[in-house]
Amino acid sequence: MKPEIAAKLLALNAQFYQTFGLAFAATRQRLQPGILRVLPRLPLTAQWLDLGCAHGEVARWLAQHQFQGRYLGLDFSPALLAEAQAWADHLPPALATRFTFRQADLGHPDWVTALDDARFEVALAFAVLHHIPGRVNRERLLHLVRAHLEPGATLVLSVWQFQHSPRLLARRQPWARIGIDEADLEPGDTLLDWRHALPDQSEKVGLRYVHQFSREELDALAVSSGFRVEETFESDGEGGRLGLYQVWRAV
């Protein structure tokens, strides 16, 4: 993918979450079943990295389950991070010190400076990779993640399987709507709209870039980034198939 196309798609998603971030988060005030399936298996004394932490739902779960490790949550949305930090500020001091939230744009290589050379034993990337345009860019992101993981560390990720929902498929939009030639994109790249209306207000529509992954594509991405796939399963939403999850081991 040409750098200028990737940049345009990243800017599109940035604009979406700046405009609709809090409203979008309000529709996701609980952890998805697939996330809840995995979290109890992970060590609560480890160093955790949560990529795309949003308003801190994973951190809240950890705080409720005797978390004894250290947690770093990264997100590019100041509004969502402010919400996460406001929650952390009301924790007992001994617990609050275990949680840190920082702003970082995972679509740009300099996001890694937010890690301060820390190393982690657990990394999470829920609903993140499908918003990173271009195979090369996704590989670069994962190589940087791998460089900050201990050998044998666990990375758990999920991607959106909107193709399993007729309702979501109906929200696909033509690329001409934002002035992009489909020939400049990669297979699976999709433009979706999202609609939101407050009481007594007219509906507002936003557009997002989403990449549709196959299992084979995720498997190959793991290998090329220094991981081994240990588990794959579907969960969440309509029919329990809107999320594709994988558990990777750093090798």
Helices and strands in order:
Blueprint lengths: L2 H24 L6 H6 L8 E5 L5 H7 L6 E6 L2 H11 L4 H4 L2 E5 L16 E7 L8 H13 L1 E12 L5 H4 L19 E8 L7 E8 L3 H10 L2 E9 L7 E8 L1
Parallel strand pairs: 1-2, 1-4, 2-3, 4-5
Antiparallel strand pairs: 5-9, 6-7, 8-9
How would you characterize the overall build of this protein?
With 251 residues, this protein is an alpha/beta fold. Helix content is 31%, strand content 27%. The protein has eight helices and nine strands. The strands form two sheets. The protein has a seven-stranded mixed β-sheet with strand order 3-2-1-4-5-9-8, sandwiched between helices. Strands 6-7 form a two-stranded antiparallel sheet. The chain is globular, with a radius of gyration of 18 Å. InterPro entries: SAM-dependent_MTases_sf. One of its GO terms (molecular function) is methyltransferase activity.
Task: Write a brief structural summary.
This protein is an alpha/beta fold. It has 8 helices and 9 strands.
Give the CATH topology. Rossmann fold
CATH superfamily: Vaccinia Virus protein VP39
Order of helices and strands: HHEHEHHEEHEHEEHEE
| Percent in strands | 25-35%
Number of strands: 9
**Ends: how far apart?**
28 Å
The CATH architecture: 3-Layer(aba) Sandwich
| Class from helix and strand fractions | alpha/beta
Query: Which shape, going by the Cα principal axes?
Result: globular
Tell me the domain tally.
1
Q: Any low-confidence stretches, pLDDT <50, length ≥5? A: none
Number of helices: 8
Main sheet: strand order: 3-2-1-4-5-9-8
How large is the radius of gyration? Answer: 18 Å
CATH class: Alpha Beta
What profile does the largest beta sheet have? 7 strands, mixed
